Amino acid sequence: ARRRVLGPEAADIRALEVKATAPGASFRLVRDDGDQWALQQPLEWPANPAAVSAIIHELQLLEHEVSFPTRDLGKNGNPGLADYGLASPKIVVVIESGHPKRGGVSRTELKIGDVTKGNRLYVLSPAGDRVHVVNRSLVESVSLSPDQLRLDALFTIPVFIARSLSVVTTAAPGLDDPARASAGSLRIRLRRDRDRWSFETPIVARANKLAVDTTINDLNVLRAKTLIGPAAPGTGPASAPTLRIMLEGNGRHETLYLGESAGAPGEFLAQLEGRTTIFTVRSEEHTSELQSR
Known about the structure:
Elements: E1 13-20, E2 27-31, E3 37-41, E4 45-46, H1 49-60, E5 64-69, E6 91-99, E7 104-115, E8 121-124, E9 130-134, H2 137-142, H3 146-149, E10 162-169, E11 186-193, E12 196-201, E13 205-206, H4 209-220, E14 226-230, E15 243-249, E16 252-261, E17 267-272, E18 277-282, H5 284-292
Antiparallel strand pairs: 1-2, 1-6, 2-3, 3-4, 5-9, 6-7, 7-8, 8-9, 10-11, 10-15, 11-12, 12-13, 14-18, 15-16, 16-17, 17-18
């Protein structure tokens, strides 16, 4: 007898949304064509692969301990869906599977009800024809905060797969050397050929491998300090950056834009490419190192 609650709809999940009645407990995750997951709501941010994988794994392997049909619920004095917390569930998990260009997208809803006396959960099947009693680990896996779901790092391309590094600065106070203020922007591009790094701009020359590798390692430990919120259209650091850093490798690239000072010394407003969320980052040390190198 089948014990799995979900079927083929859980095989190729492209988007996952949790709608919860508790404040701040709702979120939406989406997967791009490069199989990278990102938070779409409540803010746009790269997702933590481990956290997403745990949720997907829980849904794909979800099995009931017992189940019963809903056709007789509420009849002849029998309990109804409301008695199991399924008439107005506190949590609804929405699964979108498939691809719009390859057979279309299907949408599946899994409603999570009350806790049983045995510390299990009542779950309504996507078709609405059965109530499943499942392990409580399901609600624990989908009850994560945005801080637990978001990726902590700003750059995720490690030095051993990095292929190029680009840095563009402008003559902004605190970001560019005052002696170069009249020269406008400074553009640096380095590319790796096997184990050698070379400058492509502003000169063509061999680069110091240790210095470049150290810089990339520094970028990979850079963290967002405070998340502020979405930028209005046409605004934010991405629209007028004073420093742009782009790291490429393994068929993908990541770009960080720094804007004006956030007020505290060495702290700047920042934005990731393709994301509307503005955040702050302490970049004083990394900026000076990039410029000196």
